[in-house]
Design a protein that fits this description.
Number of domains: 1
Order of helices and strands: HHHHH
Strand content: under 5%
Helix content: over 70%
Low-confidence stretches: none
Number of helices: 5
Shape: globular
Distance between the termini: 40 Å
Mean pLDDT: 89
Oligomer: single chain
Number of strands: 0
Largest sheet: none
Radius of gyration: 12 Å
């Protein structure tokens, strides 16, 4: 398995963990991914983050979204 394939699988696992934490459907997650550039963020951070457990990484994604001007209420579907 090539590195690109490993990253793609890992990103899928992370997005599923993220979705489940916040109770988001796949269709609700797509605009959040696009709005905050989560795919490039995860690709750029793969070498560091893939060693950590899923909960830590989901926390890190949330922090990144807030740093990008996001509101955690958006993740809970409140706004």
């Amino acid at each position: 398995m090539g590195k690109d394939q490993q990253i793609a699988i890992w990103m899928n696992i992370m997005m599923t963990a993220f979705r489940k934490r916040y109770g988001l459907s796949r269709s609700a997650l797509v605009p959040i991914i696009a709005k905050y550039g989560l795919i490039p963020f995860l690709i750029n951070q793969y070498e560091l983050l893939h060693y950590y457990d899923n909960e830590y990484i989901v926390d890190d994604i949330e922090k990144y979204i807030v740093e990008q001007g996001g509101d955690t209420r958006e993740l809970h579907g409140i706004i």
